[in-house]
């Protein structure tokens, strides 16, 4: 697991899996579950430490920690604690499986994951999917989605985006012109050109292309995509453009939307808080404050309550 310095959850110094297992067993097996202890331990250990803890727990009890968390907690808190006890690639994999379950797909989950994850994260996700289902994720996705949206998502799901750091200014100009000709300039839009450029080029290359596109068309690429397309494809390509500009700002927007208006989308909130907790949650907090003039922590406090709120606050950390 890569260690990212911009997360809010850091490895615990002097970590001892045996001590943690004893404390967790006491919290779970005693009379009435002591959720505060579960929260304290699971939000104050790195993901790698939590996996060592899960192994030690199974050795000591013959049960998995996830099984016991499911048996002893409920609702949004259960979902969040189970997410913390799950390795990141397996967690992404379960979210994708959830998005494909039942009639139709939850495109929002698929878009968020495939637009924001690195090649390495996507490959880890697809490996986890193969291990759990004995099936290839791209084949299963193909059976669930269709059209240009499917083409774009399947390109991303291959985890083969160009990773070169070098920027080719001429190629950026050429791509910007191709996109302008395929959209704003013609009657009807050639979506495949947008899919090809946005799902294959490296992030630094796309940043340059966004600048060149503004020069060619006078509009931002996001404005053109929103004006020329609709539905899931529009949502996916806009998410890619936002992530090219700033992944933390993209997640700050998603978090704000999950807490806005009537009722909270706890599932999206949980997914983002857990999946970014060791990567860039400090940067997401900074972007949230910049965009909405209040701290992420204060937004969480005014939106959530009870033990689930306590757990999300613990992941979020400081009030900056």
Automatic annotation (TrEMBL):
What GO cellular component is one of the record's annotations? Answer: vesicle membrane
Q: What is the lineage of its organism?
A: Eukaryota, Metazoa, Chordata, Craniata, Vertebrata
For this UniProt entry, the molecular function terms from Gene Ontology, in alphabetical order, are: calcium ion binding; calcium-dependent phospholipid binding; phosphatidylserine binding; phospholipase inhibitor activity
Note the SMART domains from the entry. ANX
InterPro entries of this UniProt entry? Annexin (IPR001464), Annexin_repeat (IPR018502), Annexin_repeat_CS (IPR018252), Annexin_sf (IPR037104), ANX3 (IPR002390)
Which domain of life, per UniProt? Eukaryota
Q: What the record says about its domains?
A: A pair of annexin repeats may form one binding site for calcium and phospholipid.
Q: Which family does it belong to?
A: Belongs to the annexin family.
Q: Does the keyword Transferase apply?
A: no
**One Pfam family named in its UniProt record:** Annexin
Its recorded name reads: Annexin
This protein's record includes keyword Calcium: yes
Keyword annotations: Annexin, Calcium, Calcium/phospholipid-binding, Phosphoprotein, Repeat
């Amino acid at each position: 697991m890569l260690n990212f310095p911009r997360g809010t959850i850091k490895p615990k110094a002097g970590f001892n899996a045996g001590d943690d297992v004893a404390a967790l067993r006491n919290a779970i097996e005693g009379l009435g579950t002591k959720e505060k202890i579960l929260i304290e331990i699971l939000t104050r250990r790195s993901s790698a430490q939590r996996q060592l803890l899960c192994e030690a727990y199974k050795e000591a009890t013959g049960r998995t920690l996830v099984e016991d968390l499911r048996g002893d907690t409920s609702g949004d808190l259960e979902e969040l604690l189970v997410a913390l006890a799950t390795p990141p690639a397996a967690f992404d994999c379960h979210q994708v499986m959830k998005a494909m379950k039942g009639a139709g797909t939850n495109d929002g989950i698929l878009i968020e994951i495939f637009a924001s994850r690195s090649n390495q994260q996507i490959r880890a996700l697809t490996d986890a999917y193969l291990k759990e289902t004995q099936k290839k994720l791209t084949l299963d996705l193909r059976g669930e989605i269709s059209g240009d949206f499917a083409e774009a998502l399947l390109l991303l799901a291959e985890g083969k985006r160009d990773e070169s750091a070098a920027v080719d200014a001429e190629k950026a100009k050429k791509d910007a012109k191709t996109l302008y000709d395929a959209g704003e300039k013609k009657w009807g839009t050639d979506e495949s050109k947008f899919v090809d450029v946005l799902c294959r080029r490296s992030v630094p290359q796309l940043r340059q292309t966004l600048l060149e596109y503004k020069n060619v068309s006078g509009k931002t690429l996001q404005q053109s995509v929103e004006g020329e397309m609709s539905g899931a494809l529009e949502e996916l390509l806009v998410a890619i453009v936002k992530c090219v500009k700033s992944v933390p700002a993209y997640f700050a927007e998603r978090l704000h939307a999950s807490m806005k208006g009537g009722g909270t989308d706890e599932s999206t909130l949980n997914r983002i808080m857990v999946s970014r907790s060791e990567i860039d949650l400090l940067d997401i907090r900074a972007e949230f404050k910049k965009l909405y003039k209040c701290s992420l922590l204060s937004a969480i406090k005014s939106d959530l309550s009870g033990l689930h709120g306590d757990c999300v606050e613990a992941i979020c950390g400081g009030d900056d």
